[in-house]
Design a protein that fits this description.
The complex is a heterodimer of chains A (203) and B (259).
Chain A lengths: L4 E5 L7 H9 L3 E5 L2 H5 L3 E4 L5 H11 L1 H10 L4 E4 L1 H4 L4 E2 L5 E2 L6 E5 L6 E6 L1 E2 L13 E6 L1 E5 L4 E6 L3 E8 L2 E4 L7 H17 L1
Parallel strand pairs in A: 1-2, 1-3, 3-4, 4-14, 5-7
Antiparallel strand pairs in A: 5-6, 7-11, 8-10, 9-12, 12-13, 13-14
Chain B lengths: L4 E9 L2 E6 L3 E6 L1 H10 L4 E6 L11 H8 L7 E4 L5 H10 L3 E4 L1 H5 L1 H11 L4 E8 L5 E4 L4 E4 L3 H7 L5 E6 L24 E4 L5 H8 L4 E6 L9 H9 L19
Parallel strand pairs in B: 1-4, 1-12, 4-5, 5-6, 6-7, 7-10, 10-11, 11-12
Antiparallel strand pairs in B: 1-2, 2-3, 7-8, 8-9
Classes of the chains: A alpha/beta (203), B alpha/beta (259).
């Protein structure tokens, strides 16, 4: 079987070495690029994210990658958002005021209800019976966020508890999002990336 | 359930990893990236790399060392501390591979910059740190001048304004020995509620277990103990014997699940 190539969308935020490393460990080729020609040649797009929502959206707009990603979703290309990258897929965010998101997934990004922060290792509760995340049910993943996606319940594929439920993963067709950092979640993260990326690529 | 963390600490001075005793004696032990790599391999919950000579020497962060660590492609969350005094420093540290940054000197001497760091990177990425002493009420050490001072209002203000997401309390006098902190001293602390990371003298797993039971304690950080023995991190975690922490696991090995 041919190895899938993951296009790691580079819009100038954060260090992508760990994501690259985790993707390699999971068995994928990786192309780190902000250039549409390079990303066009990839099987799956991965949108990472570090920092605050408004500045990340501004960078996507400044580089034209917002339009590229919306078109990718419209043409049914597999797309995975990680942490802030998942939140950017939403319609809007209320982090540091109001900002429009990519609008690829229904929902808004709002402050956590039960705690100001959710930092550390928490377990995943899979909520979709046929989810690619099923093998990760009960595993621990590293979370580091204070806002979360409040989206369509039918898209929620996994939650975690802080102690109330928080959306930990979403899935809508070939679009997926993870609130936690699989690249910083050691063996559990690598295993989940392998399964989920294969799944959205072949859905 | 969110687990409490055991943070592996690598202390760096003049570019070398050191063992630290009482904030004034340091024993060089090797290259920081080798120790970081071990903690990553041992499945640490988080790794804190602290370059302790940077603020005192006004040298700024040790970006060369951080770049070497960042290139390892760690599978473990990384906190960097040392010399961060500006928003640009903090941003650069994240770009080089830190997931979060820890500030101490800047809390008191560049408070507005800490607010800018938080606005740009998100408060979840900003940790405050303060060496403390309870001998005459809660006091803090200004480690640049080596003078103890009243705890003051700056840190409580930053906590209330949600500029920092966690606070490292350092029992600096017992760094390298046995902590003299007690869980009772934390209850209540004369500061607003914030998740605490305790550091300094947590060499006994049973002491750590007692502190994990305190609701304000999010993590315990341990340095010297993890530098000599192979797999010391996992052995320590096993000896803590607490359901409040993630089970010990090697990276690459199967982990225990929670249902």
């Amino acid at each position: 079987m041919n190895r899938l190539t993951v296009g790691l969308v580079d819009y100038g935020v954060g260090n992508l070495t760990s994501v690259t490393h985790a993707l390699h460990d999971a068995g994928f080729r990786v192309r780190l690029a902000g250039d549409s020609t390079v990303l066009d040649a990839c099987d799956v797009l991965l949108l990472p994210g570090v920092g605050a929502f408004p500045s990340a959206m501004k960078k996507l707009r400044d580089t034209g990658l917002d339009v590229y990603l919306r078109n990718a979703a419209k043409t049914n290309r597999p797309l995975l958002g990680i942490c802030l990258g998942m939140q950017l897929l939403a319609e809007e965010s209320f982090e540091m005021g109001h900002s429009k998101g990519l609008g690829i997934l229904a929902g808004k990004v709002i402050p956590l209800r039960d705690t100001p922060w959710h930092i550390g290792w928490n377990s995943l509760k899979c909520t979709m019976s046929d989810s690619a995340l099923h093998s990760s049910h009960g595993e621990f993943f590293y979370f580091n966020h204070s806002f979360a996606l409040d989206g369509a319940s039918e898209h929620v594929s996994a939650v975690t508890h802080v102690p109330g439920p928080v959306t930990a993963a979403v899935r809508h067709g070939r679009i997926a999002g993870l609130q936690f950092h699989p690249e910083k979640s050691q063996r559990a993260g690598t295993s989940l990336l392998r399964t989920l990326i294969q799944d959205i690529a072949h859905a | 359930m969110l687990k409490k963390r055991l943070v592996g600490v690598v202390t760096v001075r003049h570019g070398w990893a050191v063992q630290s005793f009482g904030y004034n004696r340091h024993l060089p032990i090797g290259r920081p990236e080798c120790l970081v790599e071990n903690l990553d391999r041992w499945g640490a919950d988080e790794i804190l790399v602290q370059a302790i000579d940077r603020s005192k020497g006004e040298m700024g962060p040790d970006f060369d060392m951080l770049a070497r660590v960042g290139k390892l492609g760690l599978e473990t969350p990384l906190i960097y501390a040392g010399g961060i005094a500006t928003e640009e420093h903090a941003t650069r540290a994240i770009q080089l591979g830190a997931d979060r940054i820890c500030v101490d000197y800047a809390l008191h001497h560049a408070t507005d910059e800490v607010r800018k760091m938080s606005a740009r990177l998100g408060a979840q990425a900003i940790i405050g740190a303060v060496p403390i002493n309870f001998s005459q009420g809660l006091r803090r050490l200004d480690y640049v001048t080596q003078q103890e001072r009243p705890f003051g209002d700056v840190i409580p203000g930053l906590i209330s304004q949600r500029v920092i997401s966690e606070l490292v309390l350092i029992d600096w006098k017992h760094d390298g020995g046995e902590t003299h902190l007690t869980p009772e001293q934390l209850d209540p602390l004369p500061i607003p509620q914030v998740p605490l990371i305790l550091f300094g003298g947590f060499s006994d797993p049973t002491t750590t277990r007692r502190f994990y039971q305190h609701p304000a304690v999010a993590a315990v950080a341990v340095g010297n103990l993890f530098t000599y023995r192979e797999h010391a991190y996992q052995m320590y975690k096993r000896e803590v014997e607490s359901d409040l922490i993630r089970p010990a696991a090697y990276v690459g090995a199967s982990t225990s699940k929670e249902f």
